[in-house]
Amino acid sequence: MALPVPPSSAARGTPAQSRRPAPAAASVRGGAPGGGGPAELPAVHTMIVCADLPSLAVSAEHGQLTGRGLEGFYQAGRRLLSRCVLRVAGREPVPVQGRSAAADRARFVAVVRTPGDVGPDPGVVVERIRTADGTERIILRSSVPRPLRIPVEITLGTDLADLGAIGAGRPGPELPASVHDSGLRWTAAGAHAVVTADPPPGDALASAGLLRWEVELPPGGSRTIELRVRTERAVRSAGKTGGCPLPGVSAEGDDPRVRELFRTSVDDLRSLLMRDPAHPSDVYPAAGIPWRCGLAPAEALWAVRAALPLGTRLAANTLRTLARTQAGGGGRIPGPFRDAGPHLPAGCTGVEATLAFPAVLAEARRWGLPEQELAELLPAAERCLEWLRTAVGEDVYLRDPGPGGLRRAETQAHAHRAALLGADLLDSCGRPGADGWRQWAAALRRAFREEFWIDDRVGGRPSAALTADGRHVPHLGGTAVHLLDTGLLGAGQLAPGLLDKVQTEQLARLLGSPSMDSGWGLRGLGAKEAAHNPFGHRSGAVRVHETAVAVSGLAAAGYEKEAGSLLRGLLDAATAFGHRLPEMYAGEQRTADSSPLPHPAACRPAAVSATAGIHLLATLVGIRPDAPAGTVRLVPLSSAPLGALQLSGLRVAGEPFAARVSRLGLGMVEEAADGLQLGV
Questions:
Q1: Rounded to the nearest 5 degrees, what angle is found at the Cα of 399, between the Cα atoms of 394 and 403?
Q2: What secondary structure, in 3-state letters, does 420-473 show?
Q3: Among residues 502, 628, 611, 599, which one has the least CA distance to residue 552?
Q4: 20 pLDDT exceeds 50?
Q5: What CA–CA distances, in Å, run from 352 to 23, 65, 269, 463, 498?
Q6: For the whole prediction, is pTM greater than 0.85?
Q7: Rounded to an integer, what distance in angstroms lies between the CA atom of residue 250 and that of residue 579?
Q8: Given this chain, do its domains 10-25+240-671 and 55-230 carry the same CATH topology?
Q9: 333, 325 in Cβ contact below 8 A?
Q10: Which listed residue, of 59, 97, 384, 655, carries a Cα 20 to 30 Å from 358's Cα?
Q11: Per residue in 643-667, pLDDT tens?
């Protein structure tokens, strides 16, 4: 069936200044198919990461920076300091605790026994407060009842290496230092790093990278040394300047974990925000730390979509940034290929982002995107739909670009959502073509329900893909959750899904089975499938974003038992990870005495896992706004799987919004914009 011809408008022309490439996402995980295997990445799952991009600090739990692996302070992807080893009274302090204090800050505590100490009790506590912006405060506290005069030494060093090279196992040699002001300075290939100290050291030895003090501690007193790491080079990167578009929000409930999960999720998202260097008013989320500290179009769109309860500003900024990357007049957003696991070739994330763009814009409008921003972004959404029309042609399915003609189930789900929400957007804005998109979406549903479904004795399953000659790719994986993710239309209604009622019920049963539900979240590939690997990032590991999409999709379809099981498993995993969810972790089966196993190559924090916490809690409350119509509905989970829950500080129609759900699953709006009609 032919798709509708989009209207001829300014959407067809792309200004020359809009044709620049997408901001690159720093990645060392391997590229497109056909390239070499991924680099052997240093393990980071035990590291403490402080982030406020483009600034970053990576530390081991003991707090000393030894230069091993990824340890160090970074600015815009360059390591400014790799070694910062502290000695007090001639010895390294004994570490007792290292932990994150916030997304951009970590606290390390160690103790030192002084020569006059009697017995095993240490007399001096050393606290180190390390922040992503390159500041470290070293506080020495004495419990000794006499004055102490203690030598303090800090050994510094760096290689000024690029993060990608370090991740690929190619760090540079440590560079010679020179004395500079009240600290040390390093230079290589036009890059500079300077460490200054306050108070200034009593002695500085450049040849050894050593700063020395003689610190006098009164009885029960303390002294502080502050180090500041900076670069002398102007950093022309997508760094943050000015305010952050995220509001102050909070969550309270019967389950005390929801408060920390919500706070950490928003904090992590804030730490990942970057500014487009050419358009510094536009902020977007980087994909994840430490491997992808840049823009990944598809993941950025999924992240800002999940964060719409916090307001529409971040979504608008991200959409504007991606609109400028649309290739020529074709409309497609560029994006790298992404590994799809052992059963399918790598998929193009640019296609995924192009299909997500009109859907995210349409939902942002429902949450209260200002009309001026909508008018600015609508032509880019029309270009995305035009690209979809051209890519599909006379077919009913969207095939992979290039030879092969593979038709992926998740791609059809993204295209179906783009068509329905795009039609809603066109109708709302008085643009032609909406009826044609709805007709094509209906044809896609009919064909998909018949041709993508594999019947068997236990109820069947959706095919992961159809080959060019119509053969099924029959494995069951986490990408099937996108078949349940429909999208928000007007009056708080959800768009129809690709599956019929019976097929949806069967998919819900499969997603809730032990093969898919690990007890910690949804596996990326069923445990009974060929080539299953619990650590495989597309072949069995739990991917947090897919689990969150499964929870919301199952809840919307009425399968609260399965949704609640995945929700509780993910919340338990979040607790085990200190509420900072990684993008993925091992899909090992949960037992009574087990805990989730981290994946050594996972980004943490990551944009899609940070916003998953926001998405999950918003799903429990069931907020369905229609700001243009002046209405908002609550459709909470009637089972109230976490008991009573209250969310405050959200934004609907540009104004503060708060809602709560009782232990009986009853929703109530507690704060909303004047004039909003409320319904449950």
A1: 110
A2: HHHHHHHHHCCCCCHHHHHHHHHHHHHHHHHHCEECCCCCCEECCEECCCCCEE
A3: 611
A4: no
A5: 17, 40, 21, 19, 17
A6: yes
A7: 15
A8: no
A9: yes
A10: 655
A11: 999 999 999 999 999 999 999 999 9
Q: Band of the pLDDT at 190, cuts 50, 70, 90?
A: confident
Closest CA to 224 of 128, 108, 301: 128
pLDDT tens by residue, 512-535: 999 999 999 999 999 999 999 999
CATH of domain 10-25+240-671: 1.50.10.10
The CATH T-level fold of domain 55-230 is Beta-galactosidase; Chain A, domain 5 (2.70.98)
User: pLDDT by residue (tens digit) across 196-235?
Assistant: 999 999 999 999 999 999 999 999 999 999 999 998 654 4
pLDDT of residue 277: 87
Sequence-distant (≥ 6) Cβ neighbours of residue 461 within 8 angstroms: 453, 454, 474, 476, 506, 507, 510
Residue written as tokens 């994150």? 100
Query: Backbone dihedral region of 63: left (phi > 0), alpha (psi from -120 to 50 degrees) or beta?
Result: left
Using an 8 Å Cβ cutoff, are 62 and 98 in contact?
yes
Q: Domain-by-domain residue ranges, the chain?
A: 10-25+240-671, 55-230
Rounded to 5 degrees, what are φ and ψ at 624?
-130, 90
Mean of pLDDT over the chain: 91
Cα distance between residue 96 and residue 126, in whole Å: 10
The reported pLDDT for the residue numbered 27 is 42
Residue with tokens 């087990």: 594
CB 406 within 8 A of CB 468: yes
Burial 644-669 (b: 16+ CB within 10 A, else e): bbbbbbbbbbebbbbbbbeeebebeb
Cβ atoms within 10 A of the Cβ of 35, count? 10
| pLDDT tens string 56-101 | 999 999 999 999 999 999 999 999 999 999 999 999 999 999 999 9
Do 611 and 265 meet the contact criterion of CB atoms below 8 Å apart? Answer: yes
* pLDDT value of position 679: 77
What is the separation of C-alpha 133 from the centre of its chain, rounded to a whole number of angstroms? Answer: 20
| Bridge partners (DSSP) listed for residue 453 | 462
Max CA separation in the chain (angstroms): 88
